[in-house]
Amino acid sequence: MNANAPSSSSGGAGSPDVNAPRRNSKRPKYSRFTQQELPACKPILTPKWVISAFMLVTVVFIPIGLVSLFASRDVVEIVDRYDNACIPPGTKSQKVQHIQDARSNKTCVRSLTVTKRMKQPIYVYYQLDNYYQNHRRYVKSRSDQQLRNRGDENDTSSCDPENEANGMSIVPCGLIAWSLFNDTFSFSTRNNSQLNVNKREISWKSDRDEKFGSDVFPKNFQNGSLIGGGRLNESIPLSQQEDLIVWMRTAALPTFRKLYGKIEVDIEEGETINVVLENRYNTYSFSGKKKLVLSTTSWLGGKNNFIGIAYLSVGGLCFLLASTFTIIYLVKPRHLGDPTYLSWNRNPGGH
Amino acid sequence: MAGGRIRARLKRSSLYTFGCIRPPRETIDEPHQFQGPGYSRHVCCNQPGIHRKKPLKYCTNYISTTKYNVITFLPKALFEQFRRVANLYFLLAAALSLTPVSPFSPYSMIAPLVFVVGLSMAKEAVENWHRFMQDMNVNMRKVLVHTGDAGVFVRKPWMKLEVGDVVKVEKDQFFPADLLFLSSSYEDGICYVETMNLDGETNLKVKRSLEVTLPLDDDASFKDFKATIKCEDPNPNLYTFVGNFEYDRQMYPLDPSQILLRDSKLRNTGHVYGVVIFSGHDSKVMQNATKSPSKRSTVEKQMDKLIYVLFTLLVLISLISSIGFAIKTRYQMPNWWYIPPDHQGLYNPHRAALSGFSHLITALILYGYLIPISLYVSIELVKVLQALFINQDIHMYDEETGTPAQARTSNLNEELGMVDTILSDKTGTLTCNQMDFLKCSIAGIPYGTRSSEVELAAASQMAMDLDGHNHEFSRTGAQSGPEIELEVVPTPKGVSSQNRIKGFSFEDNRLMNGNWAREPNKDIILLFFRILALCHTAIPELNEETGTFNYEAESPDEGAFLVAAREFGFEYCKRTQSSISVRERHIPSHEPIEREYKLLNILDFTSKRKRMSVIVQDDTGQILLLCKGADSIIFERLSKNGRQFEDATKKHLNEYAEAGLRTLAFAYRKLETSEYSSWNDEFMKAKTSIGGDRDSMLEHLSDIMEKDLVLVGATAVEDKLQQGVPQCIDKLAQAGLKIWVLTGDKIETAINIGFACSLLRQGMKQICITTNGDMVTHASEVIKENILMQITNASQMVNLEKDPHAAFALIIDGKTLTYALEDDMKHLFLNLAIDCASVICCRVSPKQKALVTRLVKEGTGKTTLAIGDGANDVGMIQEADIGVGISGVEGMQAVMASDFAIAQFRFLERLLVVHGHWCYKRIAQMICYFFYKNIAFGLTLFYFEAFTGFSGQSVYDDWYMLLFNVVLTSLPVIALGVFEQDVSSEICLQFPALYQQGPRNLFFDWYRIFGWMGNGLYCSLIVFFLNIIIFYDQAFRSNGQTADMAVVGTVMFTCVIYSVNCQIALTMSHFTWIQHFLIGFSIVTWYIFLILYGMLSPGLSGNVYQIFLEALSPAPIYWLSILLVAVACNLPYLAHISFQRSFNPMDHHVIQEIKYYKKDVEDRHMWRREKSKARQETKIGFSARVDAKIRHLKFKLQKKTSVFSPRAVSAPTTTPTATAS
């Protein structure tokens, strides 16, 4: 307002403090932040960028895919399903009866042919199908405290329903431990030389060192009315019961493999391996399959064609997209920043 | 009184005939007879001690507008939080997580809830604290209070006041409570109050004390003052008061004129004494405080629907999973010897239905991640930050009044970007409500050469139109001329702002500097000036420093008149009880002569009478009645020989009205002494009479006196347009907004302002819907029928119009509107109004403003914005989807009711076009992304569960899930919501057409929402199945280990984190260091968390112990699968947006490209052309005017290419100045 006219003020009621000093205190402070003017990079998807991005993906993915496929091709894998073969043929109930009968002979011999030279270490896995190790009731039924500390032996509240037997706590408690896989395998070559299976260091080191106590020994295990899976040697501490440690790492899916051991010699192509196995574990009641797997590994792990294929497909798709875009740009180019594409130029009715 | 001002003590009561005449002493009314409920208040004056204990304990003067206090905060704030359905759902889920049904550990459910609710509550607490500080600010204001029996007044804070306290309020202070007015510095117990804070009215109101309390006029007299008041209980009625005052064993009745209301201000009066009657929350203003209705934005309402969609999805997949669970439990679980059935609990094959049911609850909790728990809190946070940016915007800061823009509620930010119709008040919003004396017509001769702003706008428009035409003309001549520059601001020419005098813009040498004496009708001019100087109720105040007078007038018009009189040489300088003195300086060089006029009567102004008169006797003994009033009123009261100048004056009045000026007519009447005295006797008798008909008698007598007048002339006062209003309206119109003006003014003024703002233009067909004056006598049905006919005729005319460029303007007055707003007619009216380019409603009441707003809001279903400044706009502001208040000059009422407050109308452009546009896009993108990320994550849980026999097992560790919404993905999306800009603010302003993306809801329509949800679905499938296939059986490392659940979960989770963070990077188009940092931070935090969590003792970290360092990081396949999944997830989106941009670019895409390639610098011509084209089809605003004119000329050129004549173009208001420029 007019501060230079002190001689005149109508004193209108509506302007209480016309001549008051300007209240600049409320003036917002200028900063690039508050004015939303921070320097920014504003990338836009120009055709060049789009095509280069897709090409970049192609260029990176195709080699990765190829390398992965090669790695996977180098892996030699022998899979042998033995659940039906190792049991007298019959109906399901007979099979269950057979497997549950403690006196029946469960030894079974399988022979496997090596189709390609297997370099050591050869990993021995057992694979179960249709086995819900990831069921919530199953997963929860364990006590990490008890496994770790001798003092927490009675900490079995989470192990329902396998927390105690005969009024005493079970170590290791819970359904997981109770249902321990107990088929055993021994391998020999055609010339009857025994192939040793190394069962050490098949579990994670941190599990052995920290999660399973070296002073915790199995106790009162499989003493209940129902016998689940395998038994444990009560004189060996849990930290050395590697089968148990591996088993207790529950699998994510109903089909899973677990490491059984390592064979630390090379096996030549054409060699036949005789497997003597004790088929004790019951998968018959729920029609689960049991498989024995011998496999070498590459830097990528086991035989895994999928990742290579996936990489190749994504890479290929990107190549396709890149070429589609290129073609389209060549056929029907849009001049970038062409104002004719603005809405008010496209439909002249708008103006 | 410290300003060195000298004021004569005078009995102000004699200035007012109706308002505050005091009945003679002996005719005191009977005290009010009241009893029973509602009238129980008992105040012992000057004995506050009595009111400290029961039964007369009333609340103190401490006020609190806070929602909570220390004790109630927790329960109340919690209650507020859990009224939201989503929060309640999470609360239930958290409660159930304590039972075995829960798939998660309780802490992972409770912690995020506590965090989210805690954050919201912290926000509430901060807001509450601000309110508390505001309250304390008021509570700590000081006022003089009488202490004890000493007769001494000391300053105390307001909050310490108690009922019964005697206070002394000084000039320009606010009253601390509702007071009984005892006495003032005027000896007759009159004081003036300004009630702007209560009702928005700026004129002063007179209060008068009881006669018995008049002697209590100094501090000492309160030493032994004792009295009691019995009165009504606290109530919100501002204009009534019933009570009795008992003093000296006498009862006196009290009425509203003795009550000084809290928050009104003492004006023009040295000080007053009063007794506190109602304190604190009992006071009328506090009783009146209403909460403004809580409004929700369109986006938020749509988001609610979206939440329901998600809830449906949630229930659906929960049902699937519970049915699956029941089937598995019933038929398969008995075969799983390793999971023995649980005959008591959840896993009972014999009662599978029950198991299934309890699993439903588990599933509802498990899939709760579909509903983003942090959505509300993130949105709230984002909106608060956006509001902060609005408040901080330096371009919306008004230097003049020192007020920045203020987002009073933050939950409507994005609604600003979706506005379709603006409903605007006129006075104070489009215009300043500052009056400048501009022109006058005396004795039929017009004076005043300065043009009004309306004329200037018209003139500059005219000039521009011609310019535009010339350009067009030369272009047809195959030349490229300069583009039409639209930003021409009309500047008054030849006026240096240095010698501008407030209230006076008159310029004419014929009258100034005493030159009027040489004019032919100098006697009439003299009379005119005397009327200016005498016919008013203002009080002069000497400013000792400058020796000049300031005038304290009731209305700004009156102030402008007095300033004008002074500048003409008739300085009003003194007022006594019965006289007015004017220093008259007929010749500038001479010393002024002080002339005293005896003031006989004042017949004051009421809105009903529309005129005021004074009866004065000059020094020659001649008695004169001087009258000013509305032209229509004055003209019908002229005597036969007083109509000499009627025609000329009428013509000038029309011209003034055309130029957007406010007019008053001046007249006088010579009275014979005998005639006057006989009238005066009657008048005095009436004045002292008792009874209800006193007022009507007085009015009747005034009526008798104010007749047979002689017309002197007329004045034209300019109600100035606010700065930048036409430009702003033009831009808003280009942005595709419709603008309605709702004003209390009369139809002519409104039309003038319409022209000034380019809402109307020549060539626009005006549809005036009015009720004719002679129809008032008809029955309402007849009137209604007539209006209906007018509306249908007009609609037909609009529909039959073939010219696509034809524009219509609808003008309707308040009386007609009452009928048009009735249920059976309002839709017809609305349809007509929508077809018209501009709508102006005149003479509308505040209630009608609200009704019209509601009609538009509900009838069109589009977003409305109401903008106004006064108390009369409150209804409209509260009714509209967004209410904007003009903060600054008028009262705070509109601002208090508003959602946004800006200081000037022109800031509306930036508020809508920049902030609205940004906020809309930000919030829309943010919500879409939120749903995307939660679907992408939540569905993986569902797929996994299907592989666990629907047992409700989650593949992720509880801590992962807890952190997902709260830490790992929330910050980038908040950055998106706060900092994203598709184009810079300048471009928003230059390309108003971009604004239409909001009202068309291009960024939050169902197509887009479902697109995002589909993207989420795709992403969840990719993340889950790629990882599952890669990891389910094979060794994932070269030393043979296979992946367990912890490994799979961690890998999958890492993939989710990468995918959603890459996705947001693709979504953003504006990266400051903050966005870069936050996206990077989210991913890095995940690794840091994973490493730290893995280092905790295995008792805490469980299967995650050392997982990253030992198992995952050395495995190449882990890194390969992350790369694969992240790329595969984002590939379709990238392809989509690339494709979209390449072949179907949106406007902002093209503009981004132009900017990116700096084409705007290289090809200025193109840039300017696009800027001028970037607008919506509109028929209002001055650009539309130019277009219309160009079309018009083109048409003419085509028709007859012979001669081009600029004369053919007629400006809306043809005045000499307009055509001269």
UniProtKB/TrEMBL annotation, chain A:
Pfam families given in the database record: CDC50
Highest classification ranks of the organism: Eukaryota, Viridiplantae, Streptophyta, Embryophyta, Tracheophyta
Main localization (coarse): membrane
Name this protein carries in UniProt: ALA-interacting subunit
The keyword Membrane belongs to this UniProt entry's keyword annotation: yes
Biased composition (Low complexity): 1-10
Biased composition (Basic and acidic residues): 141-153
Similarity comment: Belongs to the CDC50/LEM3 family.
Keywords annotated in UniProt: Membrane, Transmembrane, Transmembrane helix
UniProtKB/TrEMBL annotation, chain B:
One GO MF term: ATPase-coupled intramembrane lipid transporter activity
Active site per database record: 425
Membrane topology: Multi-pass membrane protein
Cofactor(s) demanded: Mg(2+)
Pfam families named in the record: Cation_ATPase, PhoLip_ATPase_C, PhoLip_ATPase_N
Binding site for ATP: 425-427, 558, 605, 628, 662, 743-745, 843, 849, 872-873
Keyword Zinc carried by entry: no
Gene3D superfamilies in alphabetical order: Calcium-transporting ATPase, cytoplasmic domain N, Calcium-transporting ATPase, cytoplasmic transduction domain A, HAD superfamily/HAD-like
Domain P-type ATPase N-terminal: from-to ranges: 45-110
Homology family: Belongs to the cation transport ATPase (P-type) (TC 3.A.3) family. Type IV subfamily.
UniProt protein name: Phospholipid-transporting ATPase
Alphabetical list of PROSITE patterns matching this protein: ATPASE_E1_E2
